[in-house]
Amino acid sequence: MINAWFKSGSPWIWMTAGAVSLNLILVVGLLLLIAVRGLGHFWPADIIEYRYQDRDGPESSIIGEAVANSLLPAAQARAAGHELLDNGEYLVQHLVKTGNRDILGSDFRWIQQQYIHSQSTPDDLIMVERREWGNFYGRLLAVKEDGAVIAQGEQAWQVAQQKLATVLEQHDEIDSLQDHEVGAINYELERLRLKQRALELKNAWNDAAKQEFAAQKQTYEKQYQAIQQQIGKLSKESKRYSLVVAEAGQKEISLPLHRVVKMTRPNTMSVLDKCVEYVGNFATFVSDEPREANTEGGIFPAIFGTVLMVMLMAVVVTPFGVIAAVYLREYAKQGFITRVIRIAVNNLAGVPSIVYGVFGLGFFVYIIGGNIDRLFFPEAAPAPVFGTPGLLWASLTLALMTLPVVIVATEEGLSRIPKSIREGSLALGATKAETLWRTVLPMASPAIMTGLILAVARAAGEVAPLMLVGVVKLAPTLPLDGNFPYLHLDRKFMHLGFHIYDVGFQSPNVEAARPLVYATSLLLVMVIIGLNMFAISIRNNLREKYRALEN
């Protein structure tokens, strides 16, 4: 009976189903862990005030957000030098985000439950998100304008919110002027300098050219001075206001309002208010630029760089992969050499990604990029243009790395097309090229899209090769902007995978970086899923379109 059951194949079916189910459970569990740890970072937690007195000091006040709890076994706690007042089995510790790094020296502090006399959540506690030094936790005492107090007490909160909205508008206007207007002028001045250098190399730098260039440069300088005056006026206006706040030790501190990003009073918020604030925090994280060594602010440049790099890689790898597969399947004579080539293609899929990075650095950057600079950009020397890591070389390196996947998937699709389709097309008078272009490739397009999906899934999460061929910790500008030629393939860029590595392993503030690692990882997964779903929808439409031909 058991032998017949094994011979029927049912046990292997159940084992396969169980393995697939286990893998799905693990994947879903991992995604849930990342989502909970990452998305929980954006919830506006209550600010707690602890009355705390350890064995070595007087009673003090600690203000901050409760982040995590820890149960330390008694033996381990005593070995670490802690005293258990109640002789319990565990020492209960709380991790509190105290902020105020400019005052306390760190953002987080571990406190022990046994030394807490009381804890409360007063309504007057505020959280101030700053552009530098992280968050501030304390109480708002007054608002000043040009050094004079204009509001105190409860009125100070309303006035502070109104003035902050005005200052943020001014700050956004300053950023817009610096990024767009000043950036465009600096870009044109640099192009003018390169044109001048090119004329000098050609011995064509004469008096007429000097006068023309001097006039253009003077025009740009006038525009620059006008914009700088406007920026100076806005900056002076935004620096008029300041906040008088008190930290946990009741020490009064002045916070310039132009260095403040946001002010909230979480203890007075309802659940609906916190939900609205939560959505706003997440939207800011997705759309803003990073600050404080990437541990504050948003990750929009990394999202933009990841998507742009993957799209460029797809544009490069798809035609080359399809052409190679078509040649191997449709034109090449099937024999020993073709089999060797297929084995080599399959082996390339298993080469470590860092090897592709080294190859991209040596071949694409130094050889091809260096020669491009010598031939087309001699005026930029000794500064490299394409002879340095950038977006183009990163895309080409990943295209080369994922090329075997597209070739194999396309070949599989071509092999599934019945021979009668080709013969019928040829019998109706079509040439081989017309048969291939109008019949075979359209029917194989779902397989081509499958290869592209696999290529995108692998390339979007790669980090090691990108560290050598173009990715950076913080890019000053995006590769795509309003300056001609608009898409700057020579620029370096940010990437979600490298951002995770940098924040998780290079950040000096480990506790502040940990939730950002989870949140960025979740966004990377969402970006990959989004790109794949877009490709899958195209593949499904193509599959339905050509299903009748397959039957």
From TrEMBL:
Gene3D superfamilies: MetI-like. This is Phosphate transport system permease protein PstA. It is found in: Cell inner membrane; Cell membrane. The keyword Coiled coil applies. It holds the Pfam family BPD_transp_1. The chain crosses the membrane at residues 12-36, 299-328, 348-372, 392-414, 435-457, 516-538. Residues 184-237 form a coiled coil. It is a multi-pass membrane protein. Its main location: membrane. NCBIfam families: 3a0107s02c (TIGR00974). It comes from Methylomonas defluvii. PROSITE patterns: ABC_TM1. Residues 303-535 form the ABC transmembrane type-1 domain. It comes from the Bacteria. The keyword Nucleotidyltransferase does not apply. Keywords: Cell membrane, Coiled coil, Membrane, Transmembrane, Transmembrane helix, Transport. Belongs to the binding-protein-dependent transport system permease family. CysTW subfamily.
